[in-house]
Amino acid sequence: MATVGKDATVEEEEIILDETTLAEIEEMKGAGQWAIVWRRLKKDKMGMLGLYIVVFLVIMAIVSWILWQYDDWLTAKGLIPGEPGKPFSLKNVYIEFWVPGMDPNNAVVLFYHPENKFPVDAKLPPSFQHPFGTDGLGRDMFSRIFFGATVSLALGFIGEMITVILGTIIGSIAGYYGGLIDDIVQRVVELLYSMPSFILLVFIIVLFEDTKIPGGKYAVVVVFFSLISWGGVALIVRSNFFSLKEQDFVEAEKALGASDMRIIFKHILPNSLAPLIIIITLGVAGTIFTFAALAYFGFGDPNATSWGDDLNKWQNDLIQYPWMPMFPALMIFFTVLGFNLLGDALRDALDPRLKD
Questions:
Q1: What's the pLDDT tens digit per position in 21-71?
Q2: Domains along the chain with CATH numbers
Q3: CA torsion angle for 142, 148, 153, 154 (degrees, to 10)?
Q4: Measured between alpha carbons, how far is 279 from 343 in angstroms, rounded to an integer?
């Protein structure tokens, strides 16, 4: 009797598991691949936290870029108080939160322009007027953090996208054709891996030390960073192509006379997007951290407004004025955390077998 009861319990558990599985299958019935990925992602609380952080940072970067680049236009339209084009206009001192109908002369200050200095207000602790305090030059730290998001995130996204594009093209060609081309690509990748990339980037920065264009030094470094960092992406894409190019749908395309470029970029590459999305998400975090580290060690661009540069300027004031280096460091931390959480969640959502 005991044995029968035990067997019945096992069978009941198996039925419950089967019903749960059938319910999940029914829920995803007719859904596309990305709809299924989104449903899996929503179940990952830490992944959704990472997504919220990334979305917030991206919106902050876009808004800060618009305010900084088009403040004259916004002022001319009456959306920001002041007179456009005048050096001592109100809009050149600060960007204000303004509700239509409010007296422009009594608007509530929200963001100071990050380059404006008020020496009498230097090194003020956090307050209602300056939520993150002021730095050693009298600049509002809250505004520096807000507008620094544009440069910091742009470096991460642009650097990683160039890296992925180069790695994808080279890896696709090597994986599809194989042979001598593949051997050459592997030797080049091995050569790139043998180079101390961080030291090489420092050397490149020193070469372009005299660049006077705002952000110009970082633009040069982004290009060189991408040229020495595509190897890992190329190897992953190459391995995917080796496994996919022998599939029946590729053979069918060849039989129909499709060109190699059509097969590579229209049929095989779209089936390799999942690992590329994960690479981009995790790679952006690594790229941002790399540029922040360069700036922290004094190899940043003094003409740019970025979290890494502010962290470098005030790192020696941590004990006496902790808010000055602390807030840029926290922004770098939360940015890297957000992208890493999102990347890990996407990896699980795109390949559920990793959860087993």
A1: 555 555 555 556 667 778 888 888 898 999 999 999 999 999 888 877 777
A2: 147-355 (1.10.3720.10)
A3: 150
A4: 8
